[in-house]
């Protein structure tokens, strides 16, 4: 066949096309990413995970080497569904790790993955779930967002990528996220992921998310870490743990000073080959 190898996977139903590109040869343009992620014209996904050996990155402009330090053999080149580049993807890195283990590209259960936000230590569990050390979740201020004419104030949190976490007082399931919420572009000049959260128990949250570069998704791993960090911040602490229910399932989050972890599912669904003519046309 000679097509381009792909896999399809998801982490709590945040879904991805994986492109194994061990030697860094694929020309992954924004247009190809957007067409791949299109649920009618392509395979359909919230994002693309290009799997590339860190040593093969060289000085590639489009892929960006930020975060690809010398310690991690594999670099997660994450792209949003609209073709834009993001620093980090918490659900994506779990699926990325599951692929590396299943493909025999790593043999240890615990290893580092390079991302644009820095290296992330991951641990693959026998039940298929993966824990990711997500680095610091840093509160950077407060801002507002408007959904359907209703304004929410929120806590801005950086988890390698930007988030604004708003608490909706029991209304999270009624919000209409079909249209992009409005946010302060002066506060977030590079865009922002918007989380809407209800507190459902002493250590449990319910969350929906409107992701930068994608739209509403069924889960956002960095967003769940941001949600727990924001909850703790409002309670006057920076250490704690919580489960977070999202549309696609449940994840477990811990936040400590300077470090956080995310544990959740990582599922590989299918593999196949992209038609090379379709790939060329999508370029
Ligand atoms: N779904 C991801 C986050 C992906 C990146 C995000 N859309 C951004 O642009 O920052 C996750 O699981 O963290």
UniProtKB/TrEMBL annotation:
The keyword Iron-sulfur does not apply. Pfam families: DAP_epimerase. Pathway: Amino-acid biosynthesis; L-lysine biosynthesis via DAP pathway; DL-2,6-diaminopimelate from LL-2,6-diaminopimelate: step 1/1. Keywords: Amino-acid biosynthesis, Cytoplasm, Isomerase, Lysine biosynthesis. InterPro entries: DAP_epimerase_AS, DAP_epimerase_DapF. It is found in: Cytoplasm. Its EC number is 5.1.1.7. One of its GO terms (molecular function) is diaminopimelate epimerase activity. It comes from the Bacteria. It catalyses: (2S,6S)-2,6-diaminopimelate = meso-2,6-diaminopimelate. Substrate binds at residues 14, 80, 90-91, 161, 193, 211-212, 221-222. Homodimer. Belongs to the diaminopimelate epimerase family. NCBIfam families: DapF. This is Diaminopimelate epimerase. It comes from Amycolatopsis antarctica.
């Amino acid at each position: 066949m000679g097509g381009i190898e792909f896999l399809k996977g998801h982490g709590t139903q945040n879904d991805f096309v994986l492109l194994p590109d061990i030697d860094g040869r694929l020309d992954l343009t924004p247009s190809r990413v957007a067409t791949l992620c299109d649920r009618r014209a392509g395979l359909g996904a919230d994002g693309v995970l290009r799997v590339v050996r860190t040593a093969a990155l060289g000085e590639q402009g489009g892929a960006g080497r930020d975060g690809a330090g010398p310690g991690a053999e594999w670099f997660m080149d994450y792209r949003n569904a609209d073709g834009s580049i993001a620093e980090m993807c918490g659900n994506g890195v779990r699926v990325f790790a599951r692929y590396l283990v299943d493909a025999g590209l790593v043999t240890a259960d615990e290893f580092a993955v390079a991302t644009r936000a820095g290296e992330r230590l991951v641990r693959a569990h026998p039940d298929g779930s993966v824990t990711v050390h997500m680095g610091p979740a840093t509160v950077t201020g407060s801002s507002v967002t408007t959904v359907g004419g209703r304004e929410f104030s929120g806590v801005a949190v950086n988890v390698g990528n930007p988030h604004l976490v708003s608490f909706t007082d029991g209304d999270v399931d009624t919000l209409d996220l079909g249209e992009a919420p409005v946010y302060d572009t002066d506060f977030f000049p590079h865009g922002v992921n918007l989380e809407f959260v209800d507190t459902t128990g002493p250590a449990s949250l319910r969350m929906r998310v409107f992701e930068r570069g994608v739209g509403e998704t069924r889960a956002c791993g960095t967003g769940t870490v941001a949600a727990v960090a924001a909850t703790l911040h409002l309670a006057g602490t920076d250490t704690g743990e919580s489960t977070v229910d999202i549309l696609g399932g449940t994840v477990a989050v811990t936040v400590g000073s300077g470090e956080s972890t995310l544990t959740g599912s990582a599922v590989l669904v299918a593999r196949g080959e992209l038609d090379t003519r379709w790939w060329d046309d999508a370029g």
